[in-house]
Structure formats: structure tokens, C-alpha cells
Amino acid sequence: MDTRDAIQEARNRGLDLVEIAASAQPPVAKIIDYGKFLYEQKKKAHEAKKKQVTVQVKEIKFRPGTDDHDYQYRMEHAREWLGEGDKVRAAIAFRGREMSHRELGAKILKRIIEDLADLGDVEVAPKMEGYQMFTILAPKKTKTAATKHTSAAPDKNEEPEKPKKAAAKKPAAKPKAEPKKDDDEIF
Fold it and tell me: Which of 75, 133, 134, 149 has its C-alpha lying 20 to 30 A from 167's C-alpha?
């Protein structure tokens, strides 16, 4: 339809001619209420923003001489944050002569990575940046699958029942191949 005819038709209906896809060949336009169109676009953008998940990077700080109790206290927070879906930045600050003992900081970061291996993956490997050594851990994406497997393992009563049911179903499913084996086992 010609542009002038489309504008005339829109005026006759009391609506607007709105260009939807300007980059298309030929450009696409619709005869609609422009105010309603803007409202719907704003509503779609708001819904998309509502579903968007923002990941924060939370930091725990250590020193090369951090004691076990302080370490455990900070690890509880790190576990909580990874469980909530936030990233954790573990940093070790060195001062003065501590810089000559970077292996102590590397040992702490290695321990952190091992302790949080069940909840998070290493996103940034331990590295030095100025007077700090740090690593960043991101929450694991398959967290729900891991919790399902751990909940199924402790129930020992359910595991033996499942193979019995499966064994009972197998002879019915394959009557030609299975009866020979069953006959051999019985006799």
C-alpha cells in the first residue's frame, strides 16, 4: 500500500500509522493506536527487567595469618552467598614483609577453592594484583541436579526396591531373550 493511502486510511479510522520495522525491505508499518503501542512496549520491557537476575560480587578478605575460626566464619558467609546465586571474591591482602611469603596466601586460596568446590566453580584463577592475591568463585549452574542426587543416595530402603521392579518388568518386556536365562537359573 502506498504511504499516502496508508496515512489517509489511518486518519479515517482515527488511529496512527506506526513504522514497525524500518530496516525491512520494504519498511513495515501498521495502523494502530500509538499510545497503546508505547504502553505495551513499556510493559514488555518492565516484565523482561523483572525476570532479569542481577548477580552481585561479594568479597571476603583474608590476611596471610588468618586463624581457623576467622576462616570458618568467613567461609559460612561465602557458602551463603554462593547458595543465593552471588559470586564470591576471596582476597588476601599482604602488607610489608608479608609480600615475601606469598605461598601462605596461595595456600589459603587453595583451601577456599577446595572447601567451596561443592557450591562454586573457579571463575578467575588465583592471581596477584598489586598487594592483593584474589580469586573469584561463581555458583555452580547444576546445583539442583546435585541436590537431587544427594537426597536419593541416603535412602537405602528405596534403592533395593527399584531394581526388583525393574527386574520384574524386564521379562515382560523381552519375552524371547529373557526366558532362556531365567530357565537356566531356575533349573
Answer: 149
